[in-house]
Amino acid sequence: MSKDNVLEVRNLQTSFSTDKGEVRAVDGVSFDVPKGKTIGIVGESGSGKSITSLSILRLLAENGKIKGGEIRYKGEDLTKVSEKRMRELRGNEISMIFQEPMTSLNPVYTVGQQISEALISHQGMNKKQAMVRSVELLKLVGIPSPEKRVKAYPFELSGGMRQRVMIAMSLACDPEILIADEPTTALDVTIQAQILELIKDLQERLGMSVIFITHDLGVVAETCDYVAVMYAGQVVEYSDIRTLFKQPKHPYSIGLLNSLPRHDIDQEKLMPIKGNVPSPHEMPTGCRFAPRCPAATDLCRAKMPELMTDDSGNQIRCWIYSDEWPGEKEVNVYGETRIAKG
Ligand SMILES: Nc1ncnc2c1ncn2[C@@H]1O[C@H](COP(=O)(O)OP(=O)(O)OP(=O)(O)O)[C@@H](O)[C@H]1O
Ligand code: NI
């Protein structure tokens, strides 16, 4: 494992057993989380973003199982460690904040009691120390009059303030990695921007790594250093943020970027990529994006491309960039030209 990475996910496969058979929700996810950096995971609804992060924390539903791959965290493979070790890691070293803060906070306890609980059970503090630290944490996440708010119940706070409380809780144990799964979608736009700013600021000040899950590439552009683009349970492109926005490689990434809201176009009129995400019960045999891809060839429809790594460490899962590409040298993708490797 590279010294610069705190986490490396390799060919992760997570399945659910259902009445209709096996759902391979995550089926070939690889990415690195460099120390002190923020990586974004983007993709349409159902592409496997949340299941990827829940797999890392081993918090899958009863019918879910990690079927293959590796999750390397500081030399340990989290797919192999004991349940006891996972409990130590969760909250202590890898913590997570979710989309809807109200469902994750307990309505019958005060904010201070809930943050203290984490500090008492994980850090071995006594009640008084934990309360003092709770106030500090509320201050850290920008909650005004923290001495007062520490005694408030969740319903007494606004959505944005509740999300700040959740962030405070997730920081209680000074985690190495913070996973934020759509942390702002339930909030209104101005509050969203503030929460994003807060996460970025905390990441810089505390030096932790952040995995930021979102379907919004605009948010990724503002927050992330690296990005993994997911499509139908797989990473199709992993790249540093500059390269992805300047020269996206995968046709799906190109399509996503083309459908980003712009000031000169009415958001309603933006035409997203044609076609639909395949059903998890009927995955295409070849490249999963082939049925929607403007550049797809017979090879693409017949055979799944591997995730290939280039010299700069960026990864791409697309036949265009392989020696086997059977099509033209200059490939037109959504009006842009890409040079094939073959
Ligand atoms: N308990 C489960 N049983 C069966 N299938 C499941 C279960 N949980 C998730 N899935 C399936 O796994 C796939 C990936 O879901 P996931 O929640 O990771 O998507 P996502 O990318 O996070 O989407 P969203 O942007 O909507 O949050 C979906 O097809 C979903 O239906
Ligand atoms: Ni999700």
Automatic annotation (TrEMBL):
Signal peptide feature range: none
Listed EC numbers: 7.2.2.11
Membrane topology designation: Peripheral membrane protein
Organism: Chryseomicrobium excrementi
Family recorded in the similarity comment: Belongs to the ABC transporter superfamily.
The keyword Translocase is annotated on this UniProt entry: yes
Domain ABC transporter: 7-257
Description of how the protein assembles with itself and partners: The complex is composed of two ATP-binding proteins (NikD and NikE), two transmembrane proteins (NikB and NikC) and a solute-binding protein (NikA).
Gene Ontology CC, one term: plasma membrane
Name of the molecule in the record: Nickel import system ATP-binding protein NikD
Keyword tags: ATP-binding, Cell membrane, Ion transport, Membrane, Nickel, Nickel transport, Nucleotide-binding, Translocase, Transport
Listed SMART domains: AAA (SM00382)
PROSITE patterns associated with the record: ABC_TRANSPORTER_1, ABC_TRANSPORTER_2
Major subcellular site: membrane
Catalytic reaction(s) noted: Ni(2+)(out) + ATP + H2O = Ni(2+)(in) + ADP + phosphate + H(+)
GO biological process entries: peptide transport
Subcellular location: Cell membrane
GO molecular function, one term: ATP hydrolysis activity
InterPro entries tied to this protein: AAA+_ATPase, ABC_Ni/Peptide_Import, ABC_transporter-like_ATP-bd, ABC_transporter-like_CS, Oligopep_ABC_C, P-loop_NTPase
